[in-house]
Each structure stands twice: as structure tokens, then as C-alpha cells.
Amino acid sequence: MKKFALSASLCLLGLSCLAYLSLQGSLPKLDGTVLVEGLEAPVLIERDTLGVATIRGGNRIDVARATGFLHAQERFFQMDLLRRSAAGELAELFGVRAVPVDKTRRLHRLRAVAHRVITNASAGESALLEAYAQGVNAGLDALSVRPFEYLVLRTRPQVWQPEDTILVLYAMFFQLNDHSASRDSNYALLHDALPAPLLEFLDTQGTEWDAPLIGDPYPVPPVPGPEVCDLRKSLTRASPLARMPVFDEQTLGGSNGWAVAGTKSATGRAIIANDMHLNLRVPNTWYRVRLIVENEASPDGNVDITGVSLPGAPVVVAGSNGAIAWGFTNSRADLTDLVLLDLEPGNPDAYRTPNGYRSFEYHGEVIEVRGADPISFEIRSTIWGPVVDTDHRGRQRVLHWLAGEPDAANLGLLAFERFEDVRTAVRSAPVIGIPPQNLMVADAEGNIAWTIVGRIPVRAGYDPRLPAAWSDPSTGWRGWLAPEHYPAVVNPDSGFVWTANARVVDGLPLERLGTGGYTLGARARQIRDGLLALDGATIDDMLDIQLDDRALLHQRWRELLLELLSSDLATGNPLREDLRGELERWDGRASVESVGYGLVRAFRIEVRDELFAHIFRACGDFEKTTTHRRLNQSEGPLWRLVAERPAHFLPDDYGSWTEFLLAKADAAIAACGHERLALCTWGEANVVTITHPLSQALPLLAGLLDIHDGPLPGGVYTPRVQRGAHGASERFAVSPGDEANGYFHMPGGQSGHPLSPFYRAGHDAWVGGDRLPFLPGATHFSLTLIGK
Questions:
Q1: Residues 6+ positions from 632 with CB-CB distance below 8 Å
Q2: Mind spelling out the 3-state secondary structure of 85-129?
Q3: pLDDT above 60 (res 375)
Q4: Which residues, at least 6 apart from 748, have a Cβ–Cβ distance to it below 8 Å?
Q5: Residue 273 in contact with residue 445, Cβ under 8 Å?
Q6: Across the chain, what does the average pLDDT equal?
Q7: How far apart are CA 788 and CA 171, in angstroms?
Q8: Which of 11, 138, 194, 202 has the fewest CB atoms lying closer than 10 Å?
């Protein structure tokens, strides 16, 4: 028995050593020389102690090839998931659990659209995409062992094609757009179920929190009278009360970004600050890189650009080229529509178009499923896009989305490498093919600007908020918004531009951009006010604003609670007195130690959800009471009701508004879950674990793959956005021409390999807000790629 136990132990040890050596073999090469086919001249890849890479080459094509090599060695699995998620090909890796996602993504047939983009690309773009793809495949081939994720999954990576880079771009469209037109669908339901004055009140277009660059805050409409909605009459209704979540917090990728003119900075240089908010994962969305092309004789000229790249693409997404610096935030423009179909009478296989009736197109799709038979299904499509569903009135609907237009995607971001001033960047923004974003840009002369980058459709003949039939020739999308019609702000008198996913413009510019679900303006206003208070802005001031966790939106809710708790109904109630004490001690921040923030936040949500549930039940005609209501500006009508307290909007279960609000205070206390409120810190609720895609399927590896940060400060309406694993995917500030004094933060590290020293290098600085240099540091590893 002892001999058997010894043999088993030795066998287990041997297998562990073999597994470890295999994992070691999939680590990227950091030093030495590698032969890479196609290079015209040697390319040098230098890494600092954090693994941040500098790529030096003699022409742009060689640098693109080396970028592909580097991305593949460090992040190929991430790249693979991006292209597969956009194309609907995840089940080939993960089996039947991924089939529903694949079916949804296949509706858009984006691999076919990506192929059309490649076909229409310029010769320069085609050459760059081809070189990048060859570099990716060379990087894979240069690994001693395939990337570790494929060892775990017991499969092999597929080669990279030029069209896969376009699919990676489409993956960002999915993250940043309402790709299912859910907002239109929700609005249509509200439009049909609620009286018009009530809908206008609840779905207000803005609030006093607005801080647009162009225009003023929008007032919240007056409270509708009892003839429109009266909750006191709802006692006679048979439908049960159901809490219906009101989505007024982030549902799409967000971000903060601003620019400071040289006239407002301490150094006389302009400053760009940017933190793009996404769902955080390991490895991080971005890969830090500095690209240098050193060849005066080259038609490319010299390039020296530093910032973040997206693994899967050969461009720097945000950063600085020495002459300009730039960053992005999600524009929340309206980029999807639902088209109602008019079927031909007696022929359900044909629909009406501006040119008469036309038969549906049918596309057969096959989903390869790991461990199971392939799944075949058919997509029914129209000239506007795929048929996606039937609405609550039984009408068939088609989804028309910007990403389905080949003109909407390209490598136009490459042009930022050579822009020398803000005006050139602003003029070029309309033809750059990315998900439309707010662009903040500054140049070395101290100028700043804001505009929209990306294609914006021109709509005609219908209300873009609602599904509509496009069978009339005058209805639908009518090309792209002309560059001269793009809104822009250049060198404003204030010396600042700022965006935070809220409304930026009004009037005709807003009508052209559409309303894709702008967030409440609380973050934007807090950032604006922080900037306007500066006297001689510094780089350190930028970090202070990015890390600002003051919960200003919740201050009036705190005051409301304190007013309630001073009443006779609160006296003698130990729990309510405990709540009052915590509110009096609260410093107003969404800090880890804060008790007051979590309690006030819970109180606001309790009031919002129950009050809106009563309104929907009493005054709406909904068949399904659990349908979500997307009301991004709900703080406006909610606060107006709480402040004015009209009798006809008092939930019918309560004798007075004070009784209702105190009951919601009690509910917030109960949600704490501890005997003492002092134990209910915000840090307990805001625990952050950044997970790897494989850790849920392989929990034994979770400890190796995931990053457990514990509690972090910040909220949804504070400039420091942090709610669970949603937060700043990068954080930087830089003056163009003075990159050496900029800073950079990123969750996770450069490498996607858990045994790499760069797997989480620099992550602690992101957590703590400690400045790391914007530029790569001194060289610690040097790898030379040479042609063969």
C-alpha cells in the first residue's frame, strides 16, 4: 500500500510538473531574436518593468506586423473571444451554453459585413490589416506551446484573418451601442400603456443635473394632475403590485473625459484626461503600447504615439502623438431603430418596401458546437436588416443598426497618429469608422475641442424613439450626417470641455444625434464644477477629479432623511435613531468606510422602485407587470414627486407621504442585514472581483486567474465610477508635447498569462490612485524581430 501511495504521489508530481512546464512554454518571449516573415527591416520590442511595450520600426507596415506579433503572444485568447463574440462563434469553444448568445449575434451576420469592409478598404488599410494578421499568426507560431487557455480547453487556436480585426471593432459596437434597440422597444411599450402627459413626465429628457456644452439644463415637466393619474383609485384594480426595476443607472459602456485649454493650466499646456468605463475583466480591455516609426525617407514619415491599443487591431485608440492628445466617452447617440413590417395580404413571405412588395431573404447559418452536433437555423432578413421579434401589438419588427452598414467601420483612427492640431481632428471625425463617441482633443499649442467621431445616420419621416414602418419612400435612414452638420466646440471661453455620457447639446444638433439613452447629468455636472473651480489646472488636479467619490446627487436625499427622522415618528425607534446618527456622521463620500452612503442610496432606490411600481400599476395598461422600464432621467420626476408630495401620487397603501417615506427608510435599514448599522459599510456592498473568462467554468483555477480587490470606493453617479466589476478600464491625463509628466492607470496588467510577471503589474496603482508614468519606463527586456 505504501509503495502504491508513493507511486501515485510521484505520478501526481510528474503530471503537475508537466502541466507547469506546458504553461511556462506558452509564455511570450521577452528577450533575444525571432524570425518573422515579411519584415522589411528589424523591429525592436522593448518592455519596461510593467511589461509596457515600445515598438520601434522603420516603416508603419513593419510596426503593424510587430504589433500583431505582440498582441498574439500576450493576449490571443482575448482577441479570439472578441472576434467570436461579434461573429456568433463562441459555442465552438464553449459548447451548448454559448448557443443562445451565438444565435443573437448571428442575426447581424457581421462576418459577412466585415468581409465587405475589407473588400472596400483602401490599399493602405488593406496592407496594414494583412501585415497585422501575419504578425498575429507569427506570434502564435513563435510560442513553444499554444496559449494556456487552449491547453485548458483542449483545443487549438484558429489563424487570424484581416477581417477578424473588423470583427474586433464590431465587438466594441456591441459593448457601446444599444444593439437590440431595447430602448425603442421599452419606449414603445410605455408610449402605448401610459397617458401622454404621464409619459412626458416620467420619461423627461433632462433634469436640473444637466451640464451640456451647448444649451441649458432641461426642466422636469410639471406633475400630472389626478385626471391623468391617481394612485388613490388603484385600490379597485385586480392586478398585484410588482416591483418593476427602473433602469436609471448605467446600462451601456460609459466614461469620463475632458480637456483643459492651455490658458487654464498651470504650465500653459493643454491637458486631456480620460477614463473609459467598461465591464472589467482579466485581461483588461486595453493593451498599453508606444509605437515609433523612425524613417525620414519613409512615405509614412515619423510616428511616435503612446496610449492604449485594443488587442486585435493595429491602432492606438486613445493617447498622445506629441502634437495632439485625445480621449473618448460613449456618445449615447441613437444608432438603432426598429422597423415595422407591412406584410403583403395573402402572402406572409413578402413585405412592403418603397419599391413595392419584396420576398424575404433567408440565410442559412450553422453554429459549430463543441461536444455536440452543429446547429442549423435560418435568418429571415429584409433590406433593412434581420427580422428580430413581434411586439406587444403583434407586429413583426426588423432591427436596423449602424454596425450593419459597411461604411460605419474602418481603420480611420490611424489618422490620429499624424494629426497635428485639434481643427484637423475635428474636421476628420465624421468619416472615422468607430462606434460614435464624444471626442475630446487637445494640441501642443494649447487648443482644445469636442465633437462627435463616427458615422451618424440622417433620419426622415418618423419619430426615432418609436418603431415605424419604412415602406414609404420618404421614411427611414437617408445617408450620413454631413461633416458641416456635426456639432463641435473649439476653444470655448470657459477653457474647458467635458463629457460623461450625458446630453452634450440641444436643439437641432440633439435632434440629429438622437436620444440613445443619455445618462443623468450628475457626473458631468460634478466634473464641470470641479474644472471651473480650478485656478491654474495641473495634472494632479485631473487625478483628483477622476478619483472624486463625493456623492453629491445623494446629498438632498440625506437631508430628506434627516428631516423625516427628526419627526415624532422616529423618536423612540432605536433603528431609526441609529440611522439618523449614521447620516449625521456621513462625510458625503462613497468611500469604502462610509455607512451613510449605502443607506441613503438604498433609501433612494426603495422609494423609486415602489413609487414607480404603484404608478405603473395604477395608471398604466401593462399586460406584464414585470417588464423593465428604462427611464434614465428618473431622478427628475422622482425628486419632484417627493418634494411636492401630491396626494394623488401617494401610494395607496399609506396614509401620508411621511408614513410612506419612513417605511422606505425602514426598508433601507432592513436591507443592511446587520444588527448594527455601523457594520453596513459601502465597502461591504461594493466588493470588486475582476474575473477571467475561464474562471467560472473552471473554479479550481479562479484563484490563479481572477483578481480579488475587495472593497473599492465610488458609485454610479460619482466621477469615480465603480460598481462591482464596472469601472475605469483605463485612467490617464497627459499634455501633448509633455508626455513625460503624464500619468496612466489600468486594472490588471499587460499580460493575459497568469504566470507572467506582467499579469497584474501596475494594478495596485489603479486601485490606490497612485500615479504611474504615461510613457513606458526604462527598458528591462529587449526582443528583436528580423525578417526571413
A1: 247, 248, 517, 518, 519, 520
A2: HHHCCCHHHHHHHHHHHHHHHHCCCHHHHHHHHHHHCCHHHHHHH
A3: yes
A4: 280, 282, 283, 284, 690, 707, 759, 760, 763
A5: no
A6: 92
A7: 34
A8: 11
Going by C-alpha positions, the residue among 481, 441, 189, 456 that lies closest to residue 332 is: 456
Report the distance separating Cα 273 and Cα 254, nearest Å.
15
Cell of 76: 490571443
What amino acid occupies position 86?
A
On the question of pLDDT at 17 being above 90, the answer is no
Give the whole-number percent of the chain exceeding pLDDT 90: 87
pLDDT at res. 13: 39
Q: Please state the rounded mean pLDDT for residues 768-786.
A: 97
Query: Do residues 717 and 522 lie in contact, with contact meaning Cβ atoms separated by under 8 Å?
Result: yes
For residue 636, pLDDT beyond 80: yes
Residue 452's closest CA among 335, 308, 320? 335
Res. 311: pLDDT tops 80: yes
Radius of gyration of the chain (CA): 28
Beta bridge partners of 662: none
Q: Would you say 232 and 266 are in contact if contact means Cβ atoms under 8 Å apart? A: no
Q: Model confidence at 584, in pLDDT bands (50, 70, 90)?
A: very high
Nearest Cα residue to 62 out of 307, 293, 320: 293
- Using alpha carbons, list the distances in angstroms from residue 512 to 406, 437, 516, 600, 674: 21, 14, 12, 38, 51
Single-letter amino acid code for the residue at 311: P
pTM of the predicted structure, to 2 decimals: 0.94
**Local structure of 44: helix, strand or coil:** strand
Which cell goes with 127? 496592407
The stretch 219-235 carries a mean pLDDT of 90
pLDDT at 2 over 80: no
Are β-strands 53-57 and 287-293 bridged in parallel, bridged antiparallel, or unpaired? parallel
Tell the residue number behind the cell numbers 444625434, with chain if given. 513
For every residue of 314-348, DSSP letters joined together read SSEEEEE-SSEEEEEEE-----EEEEEP-EETTEE
Distance CA 548, CA 524 (A): 12
Mean pLDDT of the 397-406 span = 97
pLDDT tens digit string along 746-769?
999 999 999 999 999 999 999 999
Q: Where are the alpha helices (DSSP H) in 390-520?
A: 422-428, 507-513
Q: What is the pLDDT of residue 267?
A: 97
Is residue 445's pLDDT more than 70? yes
Cα–Cα distance, 495 to 514 (Å, whole number): 27
- Among 55, 528, 624, 123, residue whose Cα is nearest residue 307: 55
Q: What is the DSSP string of 185-221?
A: HHHHHHHHHS-HHHHHHHT-S--TT---SSS-PPPPP
The answer on pLDDT for 188 being more than 60 is: yes
Joined together, the cell numbers standing for residue 451 give: 465633437
The dihedral through the CA atoms of 617, 618, 623, 628 has a sign that is negative
User: Of the ranges 93-102, 214-223, 489-498, 563-572, which one carries the lowest mean pLDDT score?
Assistant: 563-572
Dihedral (Cα; 139, 144, 149, 154), 10-degree rounding: 120
Element (H, E) at 494: none
Count the Cβ atoms, other than its own, within 10 Å of residue 666: 16
Please, is 696 exposed, middle or buried when counting C-beta atoms within 10 Å of its C-beta (0-12, 13-18, 19+)?
Answer: exposed
Tell the residue number behind the cell numbers 482579466, with chain if given. 282
The angle, 0 to 180 degrees and rounded to 10, between the axes of the packed helices 123-141 and 162-176 is 100
Reduce the secondary structure of 514-527 to three states and give it as a string: CCCCCCCCHHHHHH
- What is the rounded end-to-end Cα distance, in angstroms, of the chain? 58
Torsion sign across C-alpha atoms 584, 587, 589, 590: negative
Quickly list H helices, 650-732: 657-672, 682-685, 702-705
